[in-house]
Amino acid sequence: MAEASGMRSYGYGYLVRARVIGVSLLGVMxxxxxxxxxxxxxxxxxxxxxxRFRFESQNDFNQKYYGPHPxxxxxxxxxxxxxxxxxxxxxxxxxxxxxxxxxxxxxWGNGFHDEDFYKPVIGMEHSPNKDELxxxxxxxxxxxxxxxxxxIKAGRQQIYYGDKRIFGPGQWGNTGRWIWDAVKxxxxxxxxxxxxxxxxxxxxxxxxFSLNHRHFYESLGGYGHVTLPAALLGISLEPFSMTKRxxxxxxxxxxxxxxxxxxxxxxxxxxKKGLHGFDFDATYIREFGDFASDTIRAYGYHLLAAYxxxxxxxxxxxxxxxxxxxxxxxxxxxxxxxxxxxxxxxDKMYGRMNLFKWRNIRDAQINLELRPKKWxxxxxxxxxxxxxxxxKRDGWSMNPKLYRDKTGNSGDEVGKEFDLVCRFNxxxxxQIQTGYGHFWPDEFAKKLASDKQANWFFLQWQYxxxxxxx
Length: 470
Description:
This protein is mainly beta. Among the domains are: 38 residues; 153 residues, no CATH class. A hairpin with a 2-residue loop joins strand 13 and strand 14.
């Protein structure tokens, strides 16, 4: 009873603080709107929409399991995903931007039910496929108030940067993986920018409106970008740091005790494009903090080198990549060494079949991309991956509780994957994408999941429309 009373007290205190902050923000925003009358640009009101349908075929795997006999769902799953977005953007002048957008995400024919996406750490369903009648981009943005080079955005929004590996919207997922209720402040200067934000991530509960239930993670952080002078080859640096917290005590440490998640990240991305046809890109990130009673000590990194043959009419780009997300080599030492992947996307990073996350992984990858000079509407990419576990006593990120051998006797080789994806940008806002993937299981997957090879196919149509009302 005392614990329940404490929780009620905590919740009431948080509600009071939220209301005070909200009223203060409204007052600040109102003063900005009043000041914006000094800006003489004419008002603009735009209506927009985005419609997307995707057919997917998954054979001998599904969204949660690998092999021909999954505990839930279908081994041969053919389904259609539909996502509808529409809304208004209003710019009364050059200083104020108000966005009001909604989203509705549905699925037809999938072998999973809503309750199959129940997530114990939040005590709710959190679905990648279905989220009915939700707010999407709905925010107030103040642009360069009083000619100060700042942009302030408050409300529901997407936060993403760079190659979307650290912060990514996760738009391939039907519900959109990372959607934030946040305040973000951006400062731009000649060679780059610095952003700071505070926010909470949305839970994709399929049938409940998100303003009527809790958030998932709380985060405070920043991201920067600076391009060095030509004498230093114009290399770009992107430092970042952020927290990732969930104070609900639903996380279990290696000793069985439960507690909250209090993680922090710090890292840097360094890259250069167009260096006599060569590109390079490197990201390193450290994670530390507390996972219930465990101490977090984890890391991830990504390396890329590429060359584009600009003289060829098809402009082929050949690249090699290597990605590592640390694993936990000792499940009983009180150290949580499995990297958590921050807030990044995964759909284009570690194989297009979504069998892997940036977690206990080593991924060696080679790619070939084509962007023909004459066919600017066409793009195609072929990828080949070889996957290992970073630590063989840790789990396969597809389902780490089910696919884990704590003895390490199943080895660390998980499998190989080939993907081919093509995109066609058609007139009047239409786009078609199609792709195929094939996975060959290796020792670990054969012993813990299945020796069956898996196939994936998709066909997607997307339509975007904007209509200027005034």
